[in-house]
Amino acid sequence: MPTVLVLATFADAVPSRATLELLTLARRVGDPVVVVLEEVSEAAAAVLAAHGVTRVLSVQDPAFDAYLVAPKSEALTQVVDAVGPALVLLTSSVEGKEVAGRLAVRLGASLVTDAVDLDADGTATKSVFAGGWTTRARGGRDVGVVTVKPNSVTPEPVEGWSPVAVEPVAVTLSDAARGARITARDPRAGSGRPGLTEATVVVSGGRGTGGDFAEVEALADALGGAVGASRAAVDAGWYPHAYQVGQTGTTVSPQLYVAAGISGAIQHRAGMQTSKAVVAINSDGEAPIFALADLGVVGDLHEVLDAVVAGLKADQA
Amino acid sequence: MKIVVCVKHVPDASADRVFADDLTVDREGTDGLLSELDEYAVEQALRLAEAGDDVEVVVLTVGPDDATAAIKRALQMGVGSGVHVLDDALHGTDVLGTSTVLAAAVTKAGADLVVCGMSSTDGAMGVLPAMLAERLGWPGATYAGRLEVADGHATIVREDDTARLTVEVDLPAVVSVTDQSGEARYPSMKGILAAKKKPVQTWDLDDLGLDPADVGLGAAWAHVVGAEPRPDRGAGQVVEDRDGSGAGAVLEFLAAGRYA
Ligand SMILES: Cc1cc2nc3c(=O)[nH]c(=O)nc-3n(C[C@H](O)[C@H](O)[C@H](O)COP(=O)(O)OP(=O)(O)OC[C@H]3O[C@@H](n4cnc5c(N)ncnc54)[C@H](O)[C@@H]3O)c2cc1C
Ligand SMILES: Cc1cc2nc3c(=O)[nH]c(=O)nc-3n(C[C@H](O)[C@H](O)[C@H](O)COP(=O)(O)OP(=O)(O)OC[C@H]3O[C@@H](n4cnc5c(N)ncnc54)[C@H](O)[C@@H]3O)c2cc1C
């Protein structure tokens, strides 16, 4: 079996859902080996082992937090040289893709970004042109680098696993990798909701909210989902840019996407069109978003969402 | 200071975009234009030129004949001159090859700063600026919502999922800017007329010292083996909300899909 190297990302010291998805895909192609660019607890290693990981490598270096992207990519190159994988998998986040791009340059490896599926031979499926086309691409050199969008598969644990010891790995970083100095970092206040890319449900509000996101947030909370926003809502100052869904915001592919008061411009669709199911609520029956909605409701979003949340609460009571 | 702005000519996203028989993008079938997000890169370069003495801005594109339209648009916006890397052998080049060609062209042009868009609107990989920086061995300050350049270094502010980062790089460097960086200007009538007289150089692979065998479809690291239009999502059910019927339909949908 070929080795598949997976760059794991952690959230609060545990493997992210996106990482467990990568492992599920990696097992189709070969034996997954995980590299983590931070400290790995025994509990975290156990979660990785339960998802079929045969080795856990941990690399720690202060440069990962002090400089942008390049040190992570350089470290990963050294791990690839040591492990000799046929394929490297990373998550399609802004950072994951940049690490992958630099890695591909260093290795002379093929690069496919934003895959949504992976075959046993490493052929990646991706959705392009704002979801209008599906392409399949294969790497043509020794190693392939593929980034996978979160929410592409359901993470599956393996049966019968045994604990894996964490192997610390030392790397030597060049001065060139320390080119982009991070001089300030203002952490975003947590919303208490799941992250946009990882959430299985996203409820987004647009200009049609008129600035009142109360019902949008209430439905997101009732479904355990994340809140998103259109650029019009962001530009109006109603929601921070970090919550923008679309071409220049975050790309999401949740199980369910609810668009409330969003017209469905191509730039918005580019960021949500791969959602598994779409519900749209809009007062204008001609809104383009209805063309891709599994369920469309022509009506006032405040009234409709309010009644939906009330209905969900009544069901739970 | 010399600023090179990388711009891509892409099929219009509001029209039907299609693939050709060789599984590359059909660039004949759809009108092309300067990738919308590269207008922000042009804008930032022009602002730097207006704010500083002795700043030269050059626009650079790699693409077929039609790609001159992207250069023309940037010249109309106010950029001083253009470079078009044009060579039949480039057809079907993947991102590894494109970054090689751009790196060679930037080196030949000579630059203190390269400004890119955050992502093209066709390939939309969002990785080229980082790869270009890696090839040039320069620092990369990417996804800038704000860009300042002074005294031989650039400072950017970048927002990611978890934090707002301030990043500093010494020049030469590669920067990519987002659509948060500032609205791009429209060409003025004066700009449109002036653009006609601005110089555009055309370079082929030979001019860049590159071997045609290393680029193009045949040499691509990544091979596209299939491309299909997505089956029409088939607009689902649409209901008018009357006396709470809208909420009822949503609740049924949520229950049927086990979302709630
Ligand atoms: C370079 C570039 C990048 C962009 N990137 C993005 C991006 O990443 N994400 C993004 O979203 N956009 C992006 N856009 C903007 C995009 O083109 C649209 O302008 C934007 O998506 C519109 O947002 P909206 O649907 O909320 O507003 P509108 O288009 O104004 O639509 C509001 C909708 O709300 C409905 N409505 C009004 N009142 C109610 C009510 N009470 N109840 C129900 N419905 C109601 C209206 O019928 C209308 O359909 C980008 C644009 C450019 C040029
Ligand atoms: C639908 C589609 C999917 C693709 N998927 C892949 C893939 O998975 N793997 C792969 O190897 N290739 C892929 N390609 C090819 C790839 O898009 C091109 O090689 C391309 O020029 C670089 O990638 P990008 O356009 O996505 O750039 P991005 O990284 O999205 O572009 C960022 C910036 O780089 C600059 N830039 C990009 N291209 C040029 C150019 N030609 N000239 C000047 N400046 C430029 C611009 O400033 C742009 O804003 C794909 C192409 C298409 C059309």
Short characterization:
The complex is a heterodimer of chains A (317) and B (260). Chain A has 317 residues and is α/β, with parallel strands linked by helices.
What can you tell me about this protein's structure?
- The complex is a heterodimer of chains A (317) and B (260).
- The relative contact order of chain A is 0.12.
- Chain A folds into two domains: 3-178, 3-Layer(aba) Sandwich (Rossmann fold), CATH 3.40.50; 201-316, TPP-binding domain (Rossmann fold), CATH 3.40.50.1220.
- With 317 residues, chain A is of the alpha/beta class.
- The radius of gyration of chain A is 21 Å and the shape is elongated.
- In chain A, helix 6 (214-222) links the parallel strand 13 (201-205) and strand 14.
- Helices cover 27% and strands 27% of the residues of chain A.
- Chain A contains nine helices and 17 strands.
- Chain B has a seven-stranded parallel β-sheet with strand order 7-11-6-1-4-5-12, sandwiched between helices.
- In chain B, helix 2 (68-77) crosses helix 5 and helix 3 (95-109) packs across helix 4.
- The mean pLDDT of chain B is 93.
- The chains are: A alpha/beta (317), B alpha/beta (260).
- At the A-B interface, helix 5, strand 7, strand 9, strand 12 and strand 16 of A face helix 3, helix 4, strand 7, strand 10 and strand 13 of B.
- The structure holds flavin-adenine dinucleotide (FAD) (2 copies).
- One flavin-adenine dinucleotide sits between chains A (206-208, 230-233, 244-249, 261-263, 265, 267-268, 271, 281-284, 287, 300-301) and B (36-37, 179).
